[in-house]
């Protein structure tokens, strides 16, 4: 294997590296931490290399084994897919650093590293797949790995949450697969590009659209299909909660985008308003539920339900600017939510509980952790200069420009509710009663404090450097199927 082969096949290595890492971690569990971190660093390097390759050459299409569509498997990388890969790399590297100390600090579940790297393999393969059947395969790989990760804690709540997640995931996969079968029967191909060219309105195509979108909404946990998310995310070990909320739900959303832009563009007007309405309800209902929670991890989990609603507002606005905002929101939310879950995990470890009303003066005892939590909250609220502000501003401006007042009002109210539940935590963390115990902050390893802070700062910096992600998003013109 020469250097030229390696340098010209980053699109393959980005899938193979985490896969090889998962197998090595499985075979050598005592060294799983260092092997897993090494694989995470190598995967992040491969993501950057693919990004540079995309800048030089434009969209990349790679036929695995020399067999292209419609018979073989093809990988495809454009600006949108590489943006998702970079997001996974940033969050994955941050969570891997955190997990290295988190699981060393407690009894280390032997299965975390191989399962996490297997899930990362599925994520990277999903972002690069160019046919709807291999998208199903990668979706299954992600779902099964995620369910096993949720069950790692081993307690009653974790097992119950994992079982519910498994049943929902299987039902959603079955719906999606039935849609794949219908499309293949009707058009004789599963390649996204060929399907987009052959697509025409028919009972089979509408049935496939309903099944596939329904399955993906279940996996994305959009209101009212969110019932499985809070217990699964809140009961899992902290690194798993961060990965589920930052990356896993985004995978289903990305797949939905690909179908929406490339396979079913004619259905935009018919179904967009419905998805936007569900998104608006998710913002309001999820935010109110977050405000009602007494435990910090449950508050953050319901916050995820609310924030996911913003991703579906662009379906109703049908504006390229709104879509740019929605995709930017995917990035900023992934970074901020991973940071927030890791900060909550630090508080839980330090205090032995995550009761919000008993967080007295935690800010003085874990200042770095609380800084990370507050910065992540700034992005979730959509305050300048964060990435969340840029994302919400783009969507809000699109709504106002097209006089879509209802969506604008929902986004403004959602931002205020987000501020209410973030300040609910911050208020108890900064003020209240005197500290009764003088437990030193050093009981939380420094790496576990700095990793969430780095992700939270990156979420803020996204707002100061929006030109680069936007320029990347334009490569390959992935939003071509959007109605102006």
Question: Could you describe the 3D structure shown?
Answer:
- The structure is a single chain.
- With 484 residues, the protein is mostly helical.
- 75% of the residues lie in helices and 2% in strands.
- It is built from 21 helices and 2 strands.
- The chain has helices spanning 3-7, 10-27, 32-57, 79-105, 112-128, 132-150, 156-187, 192-198, 203-220, 229-235, 238-263, 268-292, 296-310, 313-317, 320-351, 362-365, 367-381, 387-401, 405-430, 446-461, 467-473; strands spanning 60-63, 74-77.
- The protein has a two-stranded antiparallel sheet with strand order 1-2.
- Helix 2 packs antiparallel against helix 5 and helix 3 (32-57) packs antiparallel against helix 4 (79-105).
- The relative contact order is 0.10.
- The model has no long low-confidence stretch (mean pLDDT 89).
Question: What is the structure about, briefly put?
Answer:
The protein is mainly α and 484 residues long. It is built from 21 helices and two strands. It has a two-stranded antiparallel ribbon.
- Apparent shape: globular
How many DSSP helices? 21
The low-pLDDT segments are: none
The separation of the N and C termini measures 47 Å
Strand order of the largest sheet: 1-2
Strand content: under 5%
Radius of gyration: 21 Å
- Give the SSE order as H and E letters: HHHEEHHHHHHHHHHHHHHHHHH
Tell me roughly what share of residues is in helical segments.
over 70%
Indicate the structural class: mainly alpha
* Mean of pLDDT: 89
The biggest sheet, with number of strands, parallel, antiparallel or mixed sense and barrel status, is: 2 strands, antiparallel
């Amino acid at each position: 294997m020469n250097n030229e082969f390696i340098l010209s096949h980053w699109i393959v290595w980005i899938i193979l590296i985490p896969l090889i890492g998962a197998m090595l971690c499985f075979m050598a569990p005592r060294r799983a931490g260092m092997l897993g971190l090494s694989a995470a660093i190598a995967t992040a390097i491969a993501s950057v290399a693919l990004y540079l390759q995309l800048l030089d050459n434009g969209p990349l299409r790679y036929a695995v084994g020399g067999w292209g569509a419609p018979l073989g498997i093809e990988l495809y990388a454009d600006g949108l897919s590489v943006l998702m890969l970079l997001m996974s790399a940033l969050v994955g590297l941050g969570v891997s650093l955190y997990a290295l100390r988190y699981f060393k600090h407690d009894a280390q579940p032997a299965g975390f590293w191989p399962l996490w790297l297997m899930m990362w393999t599925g994520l990277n393969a999903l972002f690069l797949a160019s046919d709807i059947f291999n998208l199903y395969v990668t979706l299954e790989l992600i779902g099964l790995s995620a369910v096993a990760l949720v069950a790692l804690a081993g307690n009653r709540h974790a097992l119950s949450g994992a079982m519910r997640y498994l049943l929902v995931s299987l039902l959603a996969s079955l719906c999606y697969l039935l849609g794949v079968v219908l499309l293949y029967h009707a058009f004789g191909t599963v390649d996204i590009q060929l399907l987009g060219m052959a697509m025409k309105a028919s009972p089979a195509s509408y049935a496939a659209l309903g099944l596939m979108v329904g399955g993906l909404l279940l996996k994305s946990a959009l209101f009212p299909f969110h019932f499985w998310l809070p217990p699964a995310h809140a009961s899992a070990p902290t690194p798993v909660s961060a990965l589920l909320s930052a990356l896993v739900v985004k995978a289903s959303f990305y797949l939905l985008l690909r179908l929406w832009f490339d396979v079913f563009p004619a259905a935009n007007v018919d179904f967009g308003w419905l998805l936007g309405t569900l998104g608006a309800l998710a913002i309001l209902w999820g935010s109110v539920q977050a405000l009602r929670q007494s435990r910090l991890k449950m508050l953050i989990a319901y916050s995820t339900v609310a924030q996911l609603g913003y991703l579906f507002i662009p379906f109703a606005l049908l504006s390229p600017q709104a879509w740019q905002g929605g995709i930017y929101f995917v990035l900023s939310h992934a970074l901020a939510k991973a940071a927030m879950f890791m900060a909550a995990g630090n508080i839980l470890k330090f205090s032995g509980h995550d009761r919000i009303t008993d967080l007295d003066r935690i800010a003085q005892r874990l200042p770095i952790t609380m800084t990370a939590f507050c910065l992540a909250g700034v992005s979730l609220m959509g305050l300048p200069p964060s990435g969340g502000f840029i994302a919400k501003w783009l969507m809000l401006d699109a709504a106002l420009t097209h006089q879509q007042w209802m969506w604008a009002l929902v986004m403004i109210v959602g931002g205020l509710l987000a501020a209410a539940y973030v300040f609910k935590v911050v208020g108890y963390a900064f003020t209240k009663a005197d500290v009764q115990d003088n437990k030193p902050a050093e009981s939380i390893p420094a790496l576990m404090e700095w990793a969430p802070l780095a992700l939270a700062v990156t979420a803020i910096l996204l707002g100061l450097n929006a030109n680069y992600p936007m320029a990347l998003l334009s490569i390959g013109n992935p939003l071509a199927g959007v109605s102006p």
